[in-house]
Amino acid sequence: MTVSANLGFPRIGVRRELKNSLEAYWKGDTSKADLLAAARQLRARHWKLQKEAGIDIIPSGDFSLYDHVLDMAFTLGAIPERFANLDKSDPLDVYFACARGTDTAPAMEMTKWFDTNYHYIVPEFTRGQSFALSSSRVIDEFREAQSIGIKTRPVLIGPVTFLSLGKAKDDFEPVELLEAILPVYAEILSTLKANGADCVQIDDPVLACDLGESQKVALKRAYDVLAPIAPKIMLTSYFGALGDNLELAANLPVEGLHVDLVRAPDQLEPVLEALVSGTKSLSLGLIDGRNIWRADLENKFAIVRRAWDLLGPDRLQIAPSCSLLHSPIDLEYEVALDPELRSWLAFAKQKLDEVQALTVAIQRGEGAAREAFSASKQALASRRSCPKTSNRAVRNRIAAVDQHALARKHPYAERAVIQQDHFGLPAFPTTTIGSYPQTKDIRQARAAFKRGDINEETYLTFLRVRTQECVAIQQQIGLDVLVHGEFERNDMVEYFGEQLEGFAFTKNGWVQSYGSRCVKPPVIYGDVSRPNPMTVEWSAYAQSLTEKPMKGMLTGPVTILQWSFARDDQPRAETCRQIALAIRDEVLDLERAGIGMIQIDEPALREGLPLRKVEWEDYLAWAVDCFRLSASGVEDRTQIHTHMCYAEFNDIMDAIAALDADVISIETSRSDMELLEAFGTFNYPNAIGPGVWDIHSPRVPSSADMVALLQKALETMPADRLWINPDCGLKTRDWPETKAALGQLISAAEKLRATRL
What we know:
By secondary structure, the chain is of the alpha/beta class. It contains 27 helices and 21 strands. Strands 1-12-11-10-9-8-6-2 form an 8-stranded parallel β-sheet. The chain has a 5-stranded parallel β-sheet with strand order 17-18-19-20-21. Pathway: Amino-acid biosynthesis; L-methionine biosynthesis via de novo pathway; L-methionine from L-homocysteine (MetE route): step 1/1.
C-alpha cells in the first residue's frame, strides 16, 4: 500500500523554545540537564504531532541542538585539532565550542546549506585523518522515540554529501577519506538495525549537483559497502533534479529513492522510466518543503496517479520535497493574518495534512479526501482572482526599464578619484557592516510599542537617544565611516517588507537560520512597490549628529527575495526586479537627503545560485541586473557599498565584479582570509573590506590577530583599495565585547598605517 512519509521536521518549536533554552544555557542561567530536557520535550511533541497527522513514516535523528552537519562531524569524531585541549568530559561544551568558538580556538567555518538560507558548520578535514564513533545521538533518539511508542525512520547525512560539504586543510579531495569513514557509518547502521530499525533515510542531496568522477565512484562504493549491513535504505535527494546522476542513483543498492518534484517536476518521467522495470520504491517529493503556499492537490494527485499506474501501489511513498526544517511550524497560530491570504498558506503541520490527503486519496479514492481537495481548489481560485496580487503601475515601470538604468555614469576608476576627493578618507578606512547590539531594552521597547503600551513619540524618542549614543560611541572609538545602528529595525528583510506593498507578515512564522538564530521571513504575495521613504529619516538624523560620513543601510533586492517566502505564481526574476525598483527609489531619496555612502547588502546573492552550472548564467544575469538597477541611479561621488557573507565566491567572481559596487565587504575571518584569494586571483577591480572579526563567535580577537589577517589580505589586494571591518552586523553581540573588538580593530588599522605608509 502507498504510504505517507516525512523527511524532517522543524526543531525550534512553535514558540522558539529551542532558541530560548540554548541561549539560557549559554548564559549560564540554566543547566545542561535543563537544556537536554527541553530538547527531549520538543522531540516527543513533534513525533506525536506527526503521528496524529497520520504520517506513516516519521523521521528521527533530524533534531539538532545547533546543526545537523556539525552533528554528523561530532558523530564521526571529526573534531578539529584546535579543540583538542578542551575538557572532553563534557562533550556538549566541545560541541558548542566548535560552533561558536572559544577565547583560544576560533569557531569552525559556516556557510549556506545548498541554496537555502540555513547555515551549516563546515567540516574540516586533513590528509590521513582518522574517524571513530564519538556520539550515539542518532541511535539514542531512535530508542527515545520507541520508548514513547513511535517507530521512526532514522536520518543520516550520506557519507559522500558529508565529505563534499567539508573543506580539506591540505591539498586533497575530501572524498579520499571515504574508506576511513565507512566503518563508522557501518557501525551506526548495523547498531540501528540491531535495535529494530527497519529502514533508514540517508540524505545525499549532492546527487542534485554537478558531480565529479571521484564523487560518483565514491557514491557507488559507499552504498555497495553499507547496503548489505544496513536496514533498508531510502536514499533521498532534493533541491533539484537528479539529471545526469539519475542512472547512478537508480542503480545504487538501496531500497528506495526520494526525488524532489517541486523544484524539478520535469524529472518525473525519466525517474519512472529508470525505476519501472526494477523493485525500488519511489518517494514522491510533492509538497513544497521550502515555501508556504498551499499545494494544488489536484495537480499533485495527477502525479501520484501517474506513478501508481507505472509502479503500482506497493512501491510508492508520498512526502514533502525535502525536510520541513525550512518551514514555519503551524499556521493555526496566525490568527491576525488576513483570512483570505491565510487560506492560501500551509506551514509544516498543514503540509503534513496535504501529504496525508494525497495518501488517503490514492489509497481510498479522492472522495475520502474531498474536504482537503475542495479547500485546495478554493484557495487557488481565490489567489488567482484576488486584485491585491497585481499592480498595473508596477508592471508598467518594469516594462520601461532599459540598459541605461543599469549602469553608473562612469567606471569605478574615475568614481574612486572623485569619491576620495569628496570624503578624504585615510588609508585602510574603518567601518562596520550596519547593525549594532539589539539589547534587551531595545527589544522590550519595540514590543511595548507594538502592544500599545507606549505611544509612538515615546518610542521614537527612545530610538533617537539610542542612535545618539551609538554615533557617539563610534566617534569615540575612532571609526572613519559610521552607521546609525539600526535600532528601529527588527530584521534586515522584515523591516523593509513592512514598508513595501505586496508583503505580509506572520506572528510566529519562525524558521531556523543557524544555531539559536531564527528569522521570520516576510510573505511576498503581490506586486512590490515603495509607497514612502523607508530609511531616509533615520539616516539623515544620524548624519546630522556627526561630520563623518554616515552610511545609509539597505537590504538588496536579491536578498529580500531569497529571505522571504516569495510568490510562486510568477518567475522569481520578475519579483526581484520589482523589489529592485523599490530599493532604487530609496537610494535616490537617501542621496537627495545628503547621504553620500549607501550600503546595499546582498549576502544571499551566492545562496540563490542554482545547484547546476548550466543554470547559473540565467540566474546571475538577472540577479546582477537587479542589484545594478537598485544602485545605478546615483551620482559618481555617491559611494555604493555592498556586503556578502558566509559563501564561496571563487566561481562567481565575474558576477560580483559586474555588480560594480564601489566597496564590497565580505566574511573572511573564519576562513583565515581564504575566501579573499578568489578576489586576488580574479584581480578584483574595486575596493574590498575583508572581515577581521567573526561576530558569530563570543571571542574578541586581538589587534595582532587582526593585523595578521590584514597582512594576508595585503598579499592579495592593493593597500589603496583595502577597508577594515567586521565580518557582519553586530546585532547579536553585546556592547562590552563590541567596544572591545572595535577598539582592537582601530588599533589594527593604526598599526597597519604606521608600517605601510
